[in-house]
Every structure is written in structure tokens, then in C-alpha cells.
Amino acid sequence: MRWGILGAAKFARQHMGPAIHAARGAELAALATSDPVKAAPFQAFAPGLEVFTDYDALLASPDINAVYIPLPNHLHVPWTIKALEAGKHVLCEKPITLKAGEFDALIAARDTAGKLAAEGFMIAHHPQFQRARDLVQSGAIGKLCHVDAAFSFNNSADTDNIRQDPSKGGGGLRDIGVYTFGGARFVTGAEPEVIQHADLTLENGVDVIARVAAQFPGFSYAAMVSMRMFTRQYIAFHGDQGLLTLTCPFNANVFGQAELVLETEGTTRVHERWPGVNHYVLQVENFEAAARGEAEYPCPLEFSRGTQQMMDMVFAAGGNDDG
């Protein structure tokens, strides 16, 4: 499958561009950027890359089968729909929408085009999370009682970062809350019943700290997400017969090594590790297999809508319905 990228974003340059280039069966064939100078780092690892100075021109190319969209959050929906209407499969960065209601238009466009469209929720492709899901849902920790998660970094000095811009869908929850929310949903297969507490600290109209408590069917949930705290990431699933902890659950190979620790009665401790597994590459390979009709995609738009619905609930509970 021949891929094109809309926009020379830093994340695309550092992670998804190389992942597309490395994935089996995939070819990074094109990049659209208004500044051709920004194409040079991509051409360094993808020789022969065709450079377009216009997004629509790339979408019109018959040589491109799929596009990856790393544009600012507020542009995700319109460009995903444009790409689908152009007959391309679409992998779009998270959050693919800013409101759950926007998924109706995306799903309709996907179904009309007969192409695959999905949000870039890479953790669902990592064996760490797939193993955690199997353990929790098979009863390895007994009855699940509580899930707690944390994801933080401090970008206070990076004042020009789009995460700081409310007009572009910025904020910590939309950037990394999708992982603390979606990770819990993916592993448990459950949806939140009610948001019991949402304490949002805002700066310049975006959330920079969020403390969330929720009730799921049969278990409680607590999460902290921040763009103003020292780097941390963690998620744990606490049952009545065991504890499952994932270290480095969200940025494998960047924050650290993806590991899983299962503790059960009698101080039994199982420690599993996945050194070097690249979930971005796995995401591209799974996307291509699903686009060819060879496998189900681990996190279709319907799954991503559930995470955005939880996000909407948190914003409403925190008195910030506009997000």
C-alpha cells in the first residue's frame, strides 16, 4: 500500500513516517507540505518521496492508496472526510474528533467510500495492552474493583505549541487523556456510567491539569492527566484476587520499556517485557491487513467514539462543555 502524509508534523517526522516506511507491505510514497524544505528529513529515510505543496493535490493522486493525517486537532474531521471522498484509506491522529457527535459524519463517509478510516490509537496494537486485556477479561485478577491511570508531561515553556491553543483543539485531555480513558476501556471492554468528579485546571482556555473519577459497571476509575507536571505514565487494574500494572503503557521505547507485572495471592509475581516492539509499525501493519479485508481492526471508529463520549462527559462534569 502506498501512503501519503498530509503535513510535515514533528510527530510524523519522528514516529509515524518512519513507521510507515518500516512496516511490511507499506511504502511511504508522498508528503504534502506548504514548505518543501520540511520534506528533507522525510526524504532522508524515504528516498524517492514525492512532495506536494498542496493537500488536495496529494489526495487527487491515483498513486496513493492511504493517507496519514497528523494535522492540528480541529482539522481532523474535514480532512478525513475529504480523503475518504477521494477514495483513500485514512489513518488520522487522535483525537480524530473534538465531540462525539462528529463521529456520525465520519462513519457515514467511511461507509459510503467503502474505505477504512481509523484514529491513531497505537496502544491498542501493542502486545502489552492485548495481554492486559486477555488477563483482566479472563479473570486473572479476580473481580475487577478499580482502575487508576496517570499521564503527564510539562510543556509550560513551549508557549507556541498547538496543545496550548484552544482554537486548534488543544489541552491535555485531548492530547493524552485519550490514552488514560481509552486504555481503560480497551482492557476492560466497559463504558463509564457516570463521571463522579472532574477537576480541570485551565490556562488560556485549555485544560492543563485534569483529575477525574468515574464509575464503570462493577468498578471505580481514577485518572490524572497533566501538561504541567513532571513526566509520568502509569495504569493499573486492581482486582479482589490480584493486581495488574503496566509500566510505560503509552510511550513504549520513548518513555521506557513496555512491561507488565501481575501480582496474585501468595506473592506470586509474573513480569513480562516487550523490548523493542514498535506499536506504530504494528498499527500500520494492522491497518493494512484490515484495509485488505484480512483482519478486524482492533480499534474502529466505533471504539474511538466511546473514548470521545467519555471525554465529553468529563468536560461537561468539569463545567467546560466546549472542551
Explain what the structure shows:
The chain is 32% helix and 30% strand. By secondary structure, it is an alpha/beta fold. The strands form two sheets. An eight-stranded mixed beta sheet has the order 8-9-10-7-11-12-13-14. A six-stranded parallel beta sheet has the order 3-2-1-4-5-6, sandwiched between helices. α1 (10-22) crosses α8 and α7 (172-188) crosses α9.
Offer a few descriptive terms.
323 residues; alpha/beta; eight-stranded mixed sheet; six-stranded parallel sheet; 14 strands
Uncertain stretches: none
Q: Enumerate how many helices there are, as a single number.
A: 9
Oligomer state equals: single chain
What is the distance, rounded to the nearest whole angstrom, between the alpha carbons of the first and last residues? 36 Å
Instruction: Please state the CA-atom Rg, rounded to the nearest Å.
Output: 19 Å
Strands, count? 14
Structural class: alpha/beta
Q: How are the strands ordered across the major sheet?
A: 8-9-10-7-11-12-13-14
Principal-axes geometry comes out as globular
- Give helix and strand order, one letter per element, not per position: EHEHEHEHEHEHEHEEEEEEEHH
Helical content class: 25-40%
Estimate what percentage of residues fall within beta strands.
25-35%
Reported for the largest beta sheet, the result is: 8 strands, mixed
Mean pLDDT: 96
